[in-house]
Amino acid sequence: MLRLISKFTITQIPTIAFPNRSETYTFNFVNSCVINSSWQNLTDTAKLIFPKKIYFINSQGQKVNWDGKNTSGQSSLPPLILRGDKIKIELGYIYPTAFNSEVKEINEEFDGYISKIGSNIPIEIECEDKMFVLKQKKLPNKVYKSSEYDVQKMVREMLDMFPETAGITLVTGTATSQTISTKIEDFRTMEDSIGSVLDRLKKEARIYCYFRGNELRCSGIVYYPSDRIGYNFVFQKNIVSNNLEYKRTDDIVLGAKAYSINKVELESTNSSGNKKTKRKRLETFVGRKEGEIRTLYFYGVETESKLKALAEQELRKFYYTGYTGDFTTFGLPSVKHGDEAILRDSILPERNGGYLIKGVEKTFDVTNGFKQKIMLHLKLDQFDNSTINAGL
Fold it and tell me: Model's pTM, two decimal places?
């Protein structure tokens, strides 16, 4: 029989108003916990609900509860928890072995900061990963000229402005390509934070940034082969439920609207003597209009024929015989986006196959236990690593 086990560690961070905050609290119970993680999102998030009648442990090993404590910061009392405090979440099971002993398996599932504390009982806490820190770091207004900066040099300069980001490693390549230089047009910061810049890069140039531990990954690469661990999931065993659809190539009908926003120089000049520019949108359609229509964004594509070729290459990724959708499994093995889900079916073995995981939602609560909802992306036997990351 599986028994749930959890550990939530909150570390106070000193503030100007409360400079002596340095306590650490450990909780081993929660009403519910939901963690969402995907390379498609700038920020991994967690939401916790703690009951009012609960004891937790401080760094001296003493029992503490919420009664009479300041949890909102709206009091002269030193707040027990506060926005900006660090939080680590560990989840797992205790289970028996064949030799009448027990095994405790618990994994770190989230490491970040408290971003919001609810005012009601039970206590609700919302959390963000290390992107929370970058969202607080306001940048000076500046133009990063494309002749002087690529994306990676620009982001590195931004990180170097703040001592709080000294422990962050900027990753722009893989083991086979250590440094990738991503060029975009002139980039202007106006009342931006580092976090808002990274969000703009995703929306404007399709450059996805996310944290993996202390690594800030920022390039066109979202799947790193060195991360990838394959896990077996069996329909008649550890797949609890699913929203999967098995399709054959002949059944798939897709079309795509493809766009590229380009900078075009004008004949007129500005006050500095440089030629003025304007944005021009290039668009085309590929595939079949009677099918499911996707929208694809590219950057800096100069001709419609080139845009069409790139869009057709991207659309081909979704023409495969296999599963699309998501499935729910137990909390172990603990998976991350970028891992491989190897689906097995003893009744229909011809449907076996491995898929890249693009996102995971983990839920942990006293009623439904510990579950993982795993979102599938691409079938791995269809592509090599360079093709997987191209055009995402």
Answer: 0.86
Task: Output the six-digit token pair for 218.
Answer: 């920022």
Is the Cβ–Cβ distance between 48 and 56 less than 8 Å? no
d(CA 62, CA 56): 8
Answer whether 166's CB lies under 8 Å from 216's CB. Answer: no
Q: What's the pLDDT tens digit per position in 332-385? A: 999 999 999 999 998 888 889 999 999 999 999 988 999 999 999 888 876 555
Please report, for residues 116, 239, 372, the alpha-carbon distance to residue 331 in angstroms, rounded to integers and kept in the order given.
26, 11, 6
Q: Which letter, b or e, does each residue of 44-73 get, where b requires 16 or more Cβ atoms within 10 Å of its Cβ?
A: bbbbbebeeebebeeeeeeebebeeebbeb
pLDDT tens digits for range 99-140 = 778 889 999 999 999 999 987 778 899 999 999 999 999 999
Residue 133: φ, ψ to 5°: -65, -45
| Distances from the Cα of 69 to the Cα of 65, 83, 88, 123, 381, angstroms | 8, 15, 21, 12, 55
